Structures are given as structure tokens and as C-alpha cells.
Fold these 2 entries.
Entry 1:
Amino acid sequence: MKAVHTVANEIEAGAEAVRALMGQIGEISDATCTGEGSEEGKDTRDYAAMTNLTLGLIHEATTRGDAYREGIARALAHLLCVNADGCGIDQKDWQPIRDTATIGGYQEWVAQ
């Protein structure tokens, strides 16, 4: 039972890392987007800073175990799917691991 719990914790930790990254990117976007764009009509967001944060998560994923990477992958798959559908998410209520629990045998991990 402990091994399943540890795996579930790592999956959740991976998803939480994506949630934290979204928050950090949101802060950078809010701070650097003028809403109207620059005088030339260009997007003013600091994508370099956002990309560096994203690269940090990718690097972290390569140094952690499979369960952590799975949590990241499931969170990203859920996020991309919901946004591709045009729905968006509420970060406070976002539960990507619960919502992707139908993958393989992972449903029992979410229930514990």
C-alpha cells in the first residue's frame, strides 16, 4: 500500500509543479502585458522569462522519477485539451489527476 501511496504522491507532485508554473507564468504575463500591445501592435509579454521557467520544469522532470513525469504529462494533457476545446480552467479548482483518472489503473490512486 505504501508504494502505491508514494507513486500517487509523486504523480500529484508533478501536477502541482505544472500548477505552480501556471501561476508563475500568469504573474509574468500580468506584469508584462500592457493589454493593448506595444506601439507597434506587438505582444509585450516576457516570453523569455516564461520560457526559462518552462525549461526549468522540463529539466526537473528529467531528474525525477516516472511517476512525477506522469503527473506533469497528465496535467499538461488535461490543460492542453481543455484549452484546445476553448473551455479554459479555474486554477483554484483544477484537479487534473482526478479528471484523468481513467488512464490505465490509476483510478484507485486518486481515490486514496
Entry 2:
Amino acid sequence: MTTFAITAALVVGQELQLNDGTRLHVELSSPAPVHCVLRKDAAAISVIALCGSERDAEERMKAEEEIHQALAERSESGGALQ
């Protein structure tokens, strides 16, 4: 079963990948607050979106839930995905 949730978080770092493939982790001195849209499938948790406001996160979560529901209904009916 897939579930969606919103949680508040801080962006404390970012990762950069240079053209030569080198990866650098940047720790931010002023963490930015965000609202995360999360999806949980069995034991896996995925970050779907980082939003600047709770309202934006709620709208994004609603859209993700609708997409997930539509895909599940098509899968159950044997309909082709377009």
C-alpha cells in the first residue's frame, strides 16, 4: 500500500556534481525550512517534493495521490497507460 505524508524539515546540505564526475557535499550555514511531500511504498520512503509552504505541499500531495489512484485504477482494469 502506498501512503503520502507532509512533514516539516530543514535543508541542511546540498550535493554538487562537477563535470568531471567529482561530487562535493555542501553543508549550509543557514538551513532553509521546507515542507516535504513523502511517499511510502512498503519499506521504501521517497521524497517527492520540497515545497516552500505547507499549502504548496498540500496541493502537490493531492496531485500525487490523484495520479497514484488513476494509475492504480488503470492497472486494475488492464487499461493502457498513455
